[in-house]
Specification:
The protein has helices at residues 18-40, 44-64. The chain contains two helices and no strands.
Length: 70
């Protein structure tokens, strides 16, 4: 089994600021774009890693905004 490299989920402070929400949104957008870029080039491992980071950023953003998922 391989160990994940780099930061999987953005760090979130206990009291969030608007800057943190903007950063999480930017992280999610960037990771989605990079996942697509890697996919187009056939680098599935990197695309998978970026897709996970994208979803982690979205989860953190949803948590920050108080959205609950079923």
């Amino acid at each position: 089994m391989t160990q994940p490299q780099g930061r999987i989920a953005p760090a979130l402070a206990t009291s969030a600021t608007p800057h943190q929400a903007h950063q999480l949104f930017a992280d999610a957008c960037n990771c989605a774009a990079m996942a697509r870029w890697y996919t187009q080039r056939g680098n599935i491992a990197a695309a998978t890693r970026k897709a996970r980071q994208h979803l982690a950023a979205l989860r953190q953003l949803a948590k920050l905004e108080g959205v609950h998922h079923a």
